[in-house]
Design brief:
Length: 159
């Protein structure tokens, strides 16, 4: 899996990512009935179903700003893009495991930063991708789908 960054910097705002994976986008950004809890909840990213263990590569050079494990996200990471550090960050959740990576370290484009898993609250192996944009001095989630190309939502379960 590669979150491939457009080489054309002029398209960064319109197309932050190219195809995120050979997998399919299984859940969209916004309110939905959670597949595990069956309650209406806000989904702050998109889910990309892919085989467990699929490598996740950085789309551009980025700094790791957060690394954590919790019951909802499982193994999760958050990166700040160095190209536009005040504009964008991405969050990745439900990772199978972490390679040896450290907070505040800068990782080059193409670096393996994790593997698709199903940790946390999950119905099957997938990558939960959250996109953050700086708005009024605060990073807020935005729909990642406009920053992807050739993506459609396919709501079949991850398994």
């Amino acid at each position: 899996m590669i979150l491939k960054f457009f080489e054309n910097q002029e398209k960064l705002i319109d197309h932050l990512f190219d195809k995120a994976t050979e997998g399919r986008t299984s859940w969209a950004y916004g309110y939905r009935t959670h597949p595990v809890t069956q309650t209406l909840q806000f989904h702050n990213g998109i889910d990309i179903a892919a085989p467990e263990g699929t490598p996740i590569l950085l789309p551009v050079s980025a700094q790791l700003v957060k690394k954590w494990v919790d019951d909802l996200n499982g193994n999760a990471l958050r990166f700040r893009f160095l190209t536009y550090p005040d504009l964008y960050e991405i969050g990745l959740a439900h990772l199978k495991n972490f390679p040896p990576i450290e907070i505040d370290h800068i990782y080059p484009q193409g670096e393996t930063i994790g593997f698709v898993g199903q940790t946390g609250r999950s119905t099957g192996p997938h990558l939960h991708l959250t996109c953050y944009k700086l708005v009024g001095g605060v990073f807020k989630t935005v729909d990642p789908l406009p920053y992807l190309t050739d993506r459609e939502i396919d709501h079949r379960p991850e398994v």
